[in-house]
Amino acid sequence: MPANPTPSTGYLALLKGNSDFRKVWVAWALSLFGDWFNMLATATLLTRLTDSGAAIGGLFVVRMLAPSLVSPLAGVLSDRVSRRHILIATDLLRSVVVLGFLLVRDPSQIWLLYTLTFIQMALSGIAYPAQRSILPDICSKEELGAANALNSATWSIMFALGTALGGFATGAWGTSPNFIIDCGTFLLSAAILKSLYFRKGAAETAPSQSGFADFKKGLRYLKDHTDILVVVLVKTSFSLFVVGAFNVAKVAIADRVFPSSNGGGTNLGLLYGAMGLGTALGPILWRIWTRDNERKMRIAIAVSYIVAAGGLYTASTLSSLGVVALGSTLRGIGAATGWVFSTQILLHKLPDGVRGRVFSSEFALLTLANAASAYMGGQLVDTMGPEGLLRVQSLLVLIPLGFWIWWNGRTFRTHAPL
Fold first, then answer.
1. Cβ within 8 Å of residue 245, ≥6 positions away
2. Cβ distance 313 to 331 under 8 Å?
3. When you count CB atoms within 10 A of the terminal residue's CB, does the N or C end of the chain come out lower?
4. How high does pLDDT run on average in the chain?
């Protein structure tokens, strides 16, 4: 595991000096903002129509399962087709799909809500590896660390703003404005990406074999590079033990423990906003210490599991909405730190020819784990309550923590110091 010897670039220098990244960054921020509006609106609408923890769990299962099913196609497309074209096409298609949520009016139309969610998230699953893989196409090695951290911070800020404002908007005006805003953000994102002409050609050479053979090649790469596979599994472990069930628990907490009008939309927005604050702060603060050094990033990932577990346990006390929000913030700091640094390690290590397929495989694994976690959370929250579910989660996080410490301790002993 060699250290990254390349000096890092600052955030302002990156935004000022790299117009390609700036366009991708702004477009992504816009679509993210609308997406979180959409998520709050669909969760609140479903709560209002069903008042069922299992139904909410089902929504998150659909949101996570859809991207994993298209992952083989998404990875091959990202390594074969213009990544810019993929991002524009998925933005335009999603702008149409989200308007369909306006048609969901009563419990008999829940099937339509699930169907539209599936299509929207399948398109997001196609966009994900292209968005991740495009960074080395538009950024130098010196810029990758700042680009990855800034992307994470932007995701977090848009998450906090989108969910908080989405919750307030839902509480004040209902769900329809959220879906209209989501449509507009996708259209604006596509318009910005249309002007993107980056320096490097992104995987646009003619393929020499079938798409399925290309997909298997990506899987063989993971099999032959065990350390890459372990890094890929970091996000999967957070999805399984931290993220999925916690999303279900937050909806139940907002609706049942600290209820408000409109299915708890306002309080749910506050809890998501608090988590978004944590996801924004964690990687930025940690990067001051890591300075893009791989060994330090791996240490930060270990600590991130501990912080996430502490956040889950804090939230489980349910002593007040503020305490739950604090737990959500800590959970956000932990999960985002592991997410960002695992991504950065992959960006530095992966060759362009398999980058899209590795990121799509990673996305498939993490979304399947998220779906499984959300499903179990939806079943358990009705039997053991959100407090019991969160306490169990806080203990289960020790499993991936122990494995990560063992693997990296073993690797550090067999390689030169980083």
1. 373, 374, 376, 377, 380, 381, 389, 393
2. no
3. C
4. 82
Give the C-alpha separation, 252 to 384, whole Å.
Answer: 12
The per-residue pLDDT for range 189-239, each reduced to its tens digit, is 999 998 877 544 444 444 445 555 666 777 788 888 999 999 999 999 999
CB atoms within 10 A of CB 62: 21
Phi, psi of 189 (to 5 degrees): -60, -45
Q: Which of 297, 406, 381 is nearest to 341 (CA)?
A: 297
Q: Select from 112, 101, 35 the least CA-distant residue to 272.
A: 35
pLDDT digits over 343-393, tens only?
Answer: 989 988 888 778 878 887 887 788 788 878 888 888 888 888 899 999 999
pTM for this model (two decimals)? 0.71
Closest CA to 393 of 244, 234, 229: 244
18-198+221-414 in CATH: which number?
1.20.1250.20
Q: Can you give the pLDDT at residue 203? A: 46
Closest to 59 in 3D by CA, of 121, 117, 120, 106: 117
